[in-house]
Amino acid sequence: MTLWLLARSVRRAPRRLVLEAIGVAFPVAMLAATLMFVDAAVQSMTPIALDRVQVEMRAVAKSLDADMPTVAQKLAAVPGVTLVEPFAATNVVVDPGTGAQVTARLFAVDPSYLENHPWIHVESGGLTQGVLLDQSIRGAPGFDGATSVTLDLPGDAPSLALKLPVGGTVDLRSAATWFSIPYGDVQGDIVTVPRSVVVDFATFQKMVLPILQSWSATGGLPQFDPGSDELPRASLEAHISVDHAAYPADPGQAAVWTGQLQRILGRQAGVPIVVADNAAEALVASQDDATNAKILFLLLGIPGVLVAGALGLAGASTLVEAHRREEALLRLRGATSSQIVRLAVAHAALAGLIGSLLGLLAAVAAASVVVGRPVWQSVPAEGVELSVGLAVLAGALTTTVRVIRLRRAARQTDVIAERRTLERGWAPIWRRARRDFLAVGVGVAILVINFVGGGLQQSPIEGTSLALSFYVLLAPIAIWIGATLLFIRGVLAILGYLARPTRPIRSWRGAAVRWLGRRPARTAVSLALSSLAVAFATLVLAFAATYQTAKAVDAQATIGADLRLTPGDPRFVLPALGHGVAAVSPVKLVPARVETDRKTILALDLASYPGAASVSPRMIDGSGIDALAADPNGVLIDSEIATSFDLKPGDMIPLTIFPDDFENASDIELRVVGVFSSFPPTSAAAELVASAAALPRANTVPVNFYLARVDGTQPPSAVAHSLSGGPLADRFGVATALPPTERGLTALNLVGLSELESIGASLVAAVGVAVLGAFLILERRREFAILHTVGADTRQILTGPVLEGMVAVVGSIAIGIPVGLGLGTIAVRVLGLFFTLSPPLLTVPVPELVGLVLFMVTASTVALGGAVLAVNRVRAATVLREL
Amino acid sequence: MGLWPMSAELAAVVEAVGLSRWYGPDGHGFRALDRVSLRVVRGEVVAVMGPSGSGKSTLLFLVGGLDLPDEGVVRLDGVDWNSLRGSDRARFLRRTCGFIVQGLALLPQATAAENVEVPLLLDGLAWGDRSRKVTEALERVGLAGHGSQLPDELSGGEQQRVSIARALVHEPAVVLADEPTGSLDSVTAQVVARLLVDAARERNAAVILVTHDPAVAWHADRMVTLHSGRLEASPASGDRSGVLA
Question: Most B CBs within 10 Å: which of A424, A789, A874, A875, as the mutation test of the B interface?
Fold first, then answer.
C-alpha cells in the first residue's frame, strides 16, 4: 500500500522528489568531496616523504667477516626491495706521492651505484678508471695534478699501501646518506667529514677488506659499537632501495610497513646485521603531517558541510505547503495517520537515497577534477568506503531531520504558517534564543582562554597536533555562525525600522521595502544561508591565499637573497660579476658539536651580508646581525637550541668546531646574543649563526655558496640568465629559487581545496537564493494573483521578488565577505602552527573574491531569474479559483 | 444567446459578446462558458448566479481581463480587451475595474490602509491625494480607525470591507465581485453586500456580483443565471421576484 502510494506521489509530483533529493545531495556532496580530497592529499604525503630519502634501508654488518655479496643477494629477494648495493667505508690516509698526506673517508661502491643515485655527482672521470677524489682533496696541496694516490690506514693499523690511479673528481656534498651515522641514539646525524675518496667495491673487497678483517681480528680495529656517536671506523653495508609503490599510500600504514620490512630484512640476511631504516623518520613526520592535514582540511571543510546541510533543511521548508496539501487530500480519501507517516518516511527515504547517490557522484567528479585524476585511483578502497559511509550518514541525518520538520510543519494550519512569516510575533529561532551572541561569545571565549593559557604558539617539543587542541578549531566555526547571524540581525533591524507605517510610502518600490521589513522570514533564511556560504568561501579562499603567500615568503627565505651562486667545485673563485649585481656575500657552513649534538654554524661575512640578503631574520629574543657585529664572539641560536639547552642572550655556549676534522677541530666558547625563529637562507638548516671571523680556521674551508642581490635594473631571473651564460658559465650554479624542503604539510594542495569548497559554497549561496525563489513561487501565488486583480503590471509584480532577491544576494556578499575575511584572520592565527614561518596577517585574494562574487551573482541571478519567470507565469484566474 | 434587459439607449460600460471558454485540447475539453453575452450599464448592479462549476467566476475573470476567451469579445467602457497588451492592459484594468475576489484576498503584509492604497500607489498618485482617498474609502466602509491594522488583526467582515474600499478607491467604472460574502456569516454577508452595492451606486459604477446566495443577489438590479456555461434566464430590470424565489 505504501509503495503504491509512493509511486503515485512520485508520478504526480516528480519535481518535488527532485527538489528533496537535491536538498540531501548538497551536504552529501560537500562532505564526501572534502573527505575524498583529504584522503587523496594524505595519500600524496607518503611519496613526498620518500622523495627525500636517498637510500631507504642500510644493512650494516656487525662483523667485517660478513659476505656482503651473498647478503645482498638474499636481501634482494625480499618483496618490495628493488636494489641492493654493497657499500663500505673506512678512514684512510691519502698520499699523492709527494708526501703531502691528508686524512679522508674512503667509500667503496660498485660503479653502477654512482649511476643509480643522482645525488652523487661525478665531476670528471669514472670509478672504473681509478679512485675518485672529492673536491676538497683536489684542492689540498699536492693533489691538484696528481695522477695516482696511495691509500693507507691511519694510526697503528697494518700497512695497506694501496696505490691506485686517480680516476676523476667526485662531488659528495649532497651524499648525506654516506655521512650519516647509521645506528644508535644519533642515527641520521650528519658527520661533516672534510675529505673523501671513492673506490670500486671489488677493489675494496680484494685489497682493503682482508687487512681490515685481520686488524679487527687482532683487536686493533674497534668492534661494532651501536652506541657510538661517530661514523664507524670501518663499515660493511648493503644499501637497500625499496620500491616506493610498495609502501602503503597512507603515511601511518607506511610507517608500520617500513618497520615490518626492516625486521624482515634483518631476519633474511642470514648474518648478524643491523638494518637502519632511513625512511622511518620521514614517514613518522609524514604521519604527523597527515593528522595535521586532516585537522586543517576538516576545519576548512566542516563549515561547508554545515551550511549545505542547512540548505537542505531550508529547501525542505519550501515543500511544506505541498506536503500539507497532499496530506489533506489523502486524509479526505480515508488514509490513516500511520499510512500518511509511512508514506512521508518512504518518500523521504527515496529522496535521501537518490540525493545521496547524486551527492556522491558530484563529489567523485569534483574531487577527481581538483585532484587531477580519478579519485578512486588516488584513494584506497577503504578510504573511499569510509568517505561514502560518512557522507551517506550525513545524508540520512539530513533526511531524518527533514522528515521531522515536515511532519511538524504539516500539522500547522496554513494561517499559522502565514502568520509566522509576518514580523509581529515572528523571529527566527536564533534571534529569539540569542544564539548569535552565544556563538560569538563561545568562539571568543575559546580564543581568549587559549591565548591566556599560552596556546596558539608552536612549541618545538610538541608537535603541531599536540599544541593545537581540537576545541580551538571550534572557535572559528562558532564565530563564523555567530558573526554572520549577528550581521543579519542588524539587517533585519534596519528592515524592521523601514517597515514602520509612520512615514508615507513614496513609491511602489518603497512599499516593497516596507513589506519586506514586515515579512523578512524567507529573505532572512536565504540571507543567512547565502551569507554563511559566502563567508565560508571567503574564509577558505583567504586562508589558501595566505598559505600560498607564506609559502612564497618561505621560498624566498629559503634562498635568502635574490640569487644564490653555488660553486660547482669548492675550489672555484667567484669572478667579477659585472652589471646587474649590487652586492655579494659569501656563506660558509661550519660543522660544530654542542655537547654530543652535531650542529651547523652559518658563518657570515658581516660586512657584506646585510647588503646581499633580501629577507630579514625573524628574531624571538635579543638582536640580529647588529649584535653579532658588536660582539666578536657573538652567536645567534635558533629557538630549538635555546629551548633544549636552556640558553638565552648573554649565556655562553661552549662548542667544538670542525669536530670530525682531525686537523682543524678546536673548542671555542661563544656568547649568545640573540634567538631566532628563522634565519635566511633557511635552506642551510643552520642552528647557529656567527661571524666567520669569530670561528678559528673558518678561512681554511671553502665557501659553500654566495648570496647576491641584484641592482634592480633587471629582474633576478634576467640577471641569473646573463650570469649563467656569462662569467659564471659552467663553474657556478645560479639559482633564483630553491625547491623548498618539502614536508607533506607544506606541499598540501590548499588551492585545490579552496576551489572545491568555494565553488561548493557559491553554489550553496546561489541555491540559498533559489530557495527564496521557491518560497516566492510556492507561497506567494495568491499574493501575485491579488496584485494582478488590482492592476499591477509585470514590472510592478516582480518588484517585490526582485527586491528580496537583491537583498539576499547583495546582503550575503556585504555580510559574507567581511565576516569571511575576519574569520580568515582568526583561522590563520589558529592554524599559524601549520606555517613554517610566521604567516602574514592575511592575504586578501582580490581576483578570487571577485570571481566568487561574479559566480555567486550569476548563479543567483539564474536561480532567481527562474523564480521570477515562474512568478510571471502565475495566471491570476487559475490561482483565484483555488481560493 | 444574448439578453438585453436595459434600455438600448443607455451606454453599456460592460459589453461581453459570445464569450466561450473551454479547458482542454482543441476545444474538446470542458466548456466552462458557452457563447455568453452580457451587457451592463453604469450604475447597474447585476447578480450572476448559478451552481458551482457553472462558469460564474470564469465569466467574471473574462470580463475583468484576467483570462482570455477562446471565442467572443469583451469591451469595457468601449475598449476591447483584445486591443490591450502588457502594462497598458494592467493600467486599463486598475483604472477601469475594481475586483473583489472570494476568500480574504488582502495582502497579508500590508495594513488595511496600505491595502486600499495599492491601486493608487500603482498608478503613481501623489501622497496627499492617496492619503485623502484612502481615508475617505475607509471611512465609507466604516473602518476609519482601522487603517494601521494588518489583515490578520481584522475580522472576516472587516477584511471584506477593506476589499470593497480597495475596489472602489480609484472610482472604477466597473466593480467585479466574486462571492464577496462567501466566507462570512449571513448577517455580516448582508451588511457587506449592502455596503458594496451602495458604495458602487454612489460612484455610479456598474457592479457584476457573482454569488450563489439569493439573499446577496437580492441587492442587485438584475439577476442572470448560468448553468453549465450557458446564460439561461434573467428577470426584467428591477424585478427581484426571481431572485428571491
Answer: A789
